[in-house]
Amino acid sequence: MVSNLSNSQSSSSQADTTSQTNQAHAHSHRRPAPEATLAILGAGAWGKALATIARHKNHQVRLWSRSSEESLEEVLADIDMLVSAIPMKGVATTAAKIQEIGLPDYVTIITATKGLDPETTRTPSQIWEADFPNHPIVVLSGPNLSKEIEQELPAATVVSSTDMAAAYEVQTVFSSSLFRVYTSPDPLGTELGGTLKNVIAIAVGVCDGLKLGTNAKSALITRALTEILRVGTHLGGQTETFFGLSGLGDMLATCSSVLSRNYRVGYGLAQGKKLEQILEELQSTAEGVNTANVLVKIANREQIPIPICRQVYRLLNHKITPQEAVEALMERDLKAEFCDLF
Ligand SMILES: NC(=O)C1=CN([C@@H]2O[C@H](COP(=O)(O)OP(=O)(O)OC[C@H]3O[C@@H](n4cnc5c(N)ncnc54)[C@H](OP(=O)(O)O)[C@@H]3O)[C@@H](O)[C@H]2O)C=CC1
Ligand SMILES: O=C(CO)COP(=O)(O)O
């Protein structure tokens, strides 16, 4: 399907990645990246798109979901990298299953889930890290609407890890002329940007569904960035990360496209549809619904002001109408623009 995802980096960037790959191997005994064997867990929209990208780089890809004929044991046998594109609700149980099966220490774990665990409030990478403390863990996140990637449209993403050798290796594995992969040393910030923006995409869907106009949408997205920065840095992400592809970049993509499931949740609510009906029609994951609930739990615990996300939470939990949510935001106490950023 995607014919142009071949590796056509310039010679200088090839030199860069070659030295990066050498650096990766200097730090580990992992096998060379050029023809890696990848298990991609989660055969939904995102797992399939990632599989397409990897296959066009000539990697061996085994795509798995719970309804696959192959067992998880079979899929995991002799792999170099494990990619998790599982929805949040399945991450902890799947990680526990893999722990039981066993995974050699050299296998890099790449997490592409955008969510927060409802029980523990942990991010997906924190779950993988806790279960696999000896493995390199890499977060992959960015403005990556899967339908556009399947249509061979260019996109960029971020791979982030405290183990930079692993990040460089994953960068090499996924980079192509249509998928530009940047590295970052801030996995938590990278992950939180992609996760928190889903709640904002619901808010923006409401804004568009109510036809509140461009001024309102611009104000909403801008103030939402302040809110994401406040939460994200409080939880340990680096400020600059939230201005990058996995933060602002992903928020712009998700808040401006009807391809976003989260945006469509908000849009549907503004049209008076019931949440259950919208989710039924989507037949796909909208992580912002769960994330809004977990985020409010975190904000209450840590005393972090999240006015926009709190209205989304109240709307999703049938405590308020879309119009009341708008009024509540507009009628808050007046204040300086940057008084409470950090
Ligand atoms: N779609 C996109 O554009 C992007 C999505 N993401 C993120 O990737 C994650 C997955 O999204 P997406 O692929 O769109 O979701 P989909 O709903 O399209 O697919 C989900 C996949 O996961 C499997 N699955 C569902 N529930 C569980 C579970 N409890 N345990 C294990 N596996 C499960 C499903 O198959 P089965 O039921 O057979 O197991 C299915 O293959 C989300 O966190 C999303 O935010 C990130 C970037 C882009
Ligand atoms: O995360 C995404 C794009 O980067 C996908 O967004 P949705 O889950 O809202 O479709």
Automatic annotation (TrEMBL):
Sn-glycerol 3-phosphate binds at K114, G142, K197, D250, S260, R261, N262. InterPro entries: 6-PGluconate_DH-like_C_sf (IPR008927), 6PGD_dom2 (IPR013328), G3P_DH_NAD-dep (IPR006168), G3P_DH_NAD-dep_C (IPR006109), G3P_DH_NAD-dep_N (IPR011128), NAD(P)-bd_dom_sf (IPR036291). Its main location: cytoplasm. GO terms for molecular function: glycerol-3-phosphate dehydrogenase (NAD+) activity; glycerol-3-phosphate dehydrogenase (NADP+) activity; NAD binding. Residues 1-23 have a biased composition (Low complexity). It catalyses: sn-glycerol 3-phosphate + NAD(+) = dihydroxyacetone phosphate + NADH + H(+); sn-glycerol 3-phosphate + NADP(+) = dihydroxyacetone phosphate + NADPH + H(+). The keyword Oxidoreductase applies. Residues 186-327 form the Glycerol-3-phosphate dehydrogenase NAD-dependent C-terminal domain. Substrate binds at K114, R261, N262. It is an enzyme of class 1 (oxidoreductase). Keywords: Cytoplasm, Lipid biosynthesis, Lipid metabolism, NAD, NADP, Nucleotide-binding, Oxidoreductase, Phospholipid biosynthesis, Phospholipid metabolism. NAD(+) binds at G42, A43, G44, A45, W46, G47, R261. Its EC number is 1.1.1.94. It is found in: Cytoplasm. This is Glycerol-3-phosphate dehydrogenase [NAD(P)+]. It comes from Coleofasciculus chthonoplastes PCC 7420. The gene is gpsA.
